[in-house]
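WARN retry 2 of 3 for item q-0093 after timeout on previous attempt; input resubmitted unchanged.
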Amino acid sequence: MDTITTSPAQNAEPALVAAGVYARGRRVRDIRIDEAGDWSRKEGHVVWIGLREPSAELLGRVQAQLNLHPLAIEDAASAHQYPKLERYGDALFIVARTAQVVDDTIAFGETHIFVGKGYVVSVRHGPSTSYAPVRERTESCPTSLARGEDYILYSILDFIVDNYTPVVEAMQRKVDALEDGVLQQTLPESDVLRLYALRRELLWLRKAVTPLVDVCRRLEHADEVLIEPQMQPLFRDVSDHIRRVADDIDSLREVLAFAFEASLMSGQAQQNAITRKLAAWAAILAVPTAVAGIYGMNFQNMPELQWKYGYYAVIGIIAALCAGLYFRFRRSGWL
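OK item q-0093 returned
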């Protein structure tokens, strides 16, 4: 949970991470949920509430104070929402997927954001990095925070997108390790399973990241949603960052695809080499087998059987033929 200064009343709400009111870019005070409505209606004041895994009762109180749309509250009460931006009258409801590395795998969470005149409410579900740095950074720059709700929304989305980078870098290290293994030897079955799991994780990460491009694109256009025109470049910057992250994810997925193909080709080449060796030895062993088969037919009229040096001659011929075949296969790379 975020580490901030809270009032005794807030400590009674385990799902309430923070609730404060700001005016002209500066924090006025911490507030209780039941005070949020009055403060949000004061001219020049913005209420910023942070919730984590809130109960239906707490969400209902927030809804009553800020007049949030019931459909948005219904979505915010449960996770597993697709990233999106919806407009309800003069308010916006945004869903963004969060990601972080937990126990060497990607853990996904969600952040639901309500934005309206005089308030911003963020609701976190599942694994998510603390948003305390967002508050600290925005509070340290009153000039920017004075822009109000739009700047707080930008700060939250920018923080979410920035946290994709460590996840992609962690995946990059895993991909590099697997790629080096492919170049050195054929991947064992365990590494092939790891490769498949990595591609699946990257696919999930891409599904979490790319929808935010459309969300930020809509935020760039003041005629479509209620965002101040001077804030458009900030959301355009977030959109560009998301595209770079998505491109990095696509690049890693292509590398894994190439690694898998290289592993298959390496395995096929190894099988072909083994097949050639077996065929070469089979050809060499066919010589003594054929000769032994001829003299094992027990015909009565085989004059060489009575020859004094017949045995030594046959052995010599077999050895010469086998040696010739062996060196021939060696030169051709089959042995």
